[in-house]
Amino acid sequence: MSGLREKYGLSADMPCHVAIIMDGNGRWAKRRGLPRAAGHRAGMEALRALIESSSQFGVAALTLYAFSTENWKRPQSEVSALFELLVEYFAREIDELHANGVRIRVIGDVLPLPERSREALALAETKTDKNSGLMLNLAINYGSRAELVRAMRSIAADVEGGALCPGDIDDDLLAGRLYTAGLPELDLVIRTAGEQRLSNFLLYQAAYAELIFTDTYFPDFGEEEYAKCIAEYQRRNRRYGGL
Ligand code: FPP
After folding, report:
1. What is the pTM of this model?
2. What's the CA-to-centroid distance between 22 and ligand 1, angstroms?
3. Rounded to whole angstroms, how far apart are CA atoms 40 and 44?
4. Separation of CA 37 and ligand 1 centre (Å)
């Protein structure tokens, strides 16, 4: 049994795939009289414990909502600071992530990102591609609606070209055209900082996921709070529409 599971009295019934809406960086900073960028930096610092404890808990896949298709509406200075943080994060952490067997994937449309950030992400993906530990997925310029539109277009093109018939389209085919193709079924979505909505995150994938909302701002979301969320998940009775 995993030592960390034992520490928090968790059973072996772990969520295979956890997704986190990392909210509250701005409020965390405001409460301290700091600029919003300082909140994002503190959020970045919180990632280390989250990733490490995911591996130790035995979670197979962790998907983090780092930048949504709607986040472009923020001031240019905040958007730039976020993308610069991404570059800094990988420059600092990639070797350790790789040594720990973490496999990094980006979900979302990275084309509009600054070149430096795109390069850092591509390097992280390539370097860790063969790793077999935690599957760490960063949702960047990700939106569920855009993801579904992209999948529909790809299927429609195949139907138009004659490679598919409309009758071939089923759940598996559609799931295979999403950014999350090949990842385990989503079991648990955690949102920090009090808001109780999905904000265009993994809408299709969350069909039977358990949703847990915590008031803690993301920079303060650590191993203990994570364990509490998993304990709550383990108390839930998942019926998938059955009895
Ligand atoms: C939401 O908080 C958070 C974000 C939009 C960005 C998340 C980014 C990080 C956790 C750090 C960088 C990530 C990586 C992968 C290096 P908010 O700004 O909406 O907070 P608020 O609702 O309190 O204003």
Report:
1. 0.97
2. 6
3. 6
4. 9
